[in-house]
Amino acid sequence: xxxxxxxxxxxxxxxxxxxxxxxxxxxxxxxxxxxxxxxxxxxxxxxxxxxxxxxxxxxxxxxxxxxxxxxxxxxxxxxxxxxxxxxxxxxxxxxxxxxxxxxxxxxxxxxxxxxxxxxxxxxxxxxxxxxxxxxxxxxxxxxxxxxxxxxxxxxxxxxxxxxxxxxxxxxxxxx
Length: 175
What we know:
Radius of gyration: 17 Å
Helix content: 25-40%
Mean pLDDT: 94
Largest sheet: 3 strands, antiparallel
Number of helices: 5
Number of strands: 6
Oligomer: single chain
Distance between the termini: 11 Å
């Protein structure tokens, strides 16, 4: 995937949040975006993930992508497992495959006991685990993580570290 001279501003004539960003995201790469608060990191990650569009520039070669946002919306009309199966279907998985993978990832993240818990009743840490799992279900070629480790316990951080290494080893890119 390649970003060429990408810029983003909010509103007509608003200030530029990003300007003239060039970025290559080759298969099998792990890229870390660092910067001060308000420097445009989340905006860049949303553009890379395809959740937001640039105001200027172009993006080519975006592969199948999954995204973990900085803030996960907790008030969703699903239990955790139902949400994961629904998102897996959106990513093109058969519901049975999505359900099986959801169970496997919930187990890995130590959240299997919360599979039938309504999303709005999950703790912040468990909701974060669900946010990460939904992105991993379809084995995306591009995984975009915006502060995905925030709120995770130490064991879940280790699982996410391992999952990132697995995606990169499989030829996927992680930003």
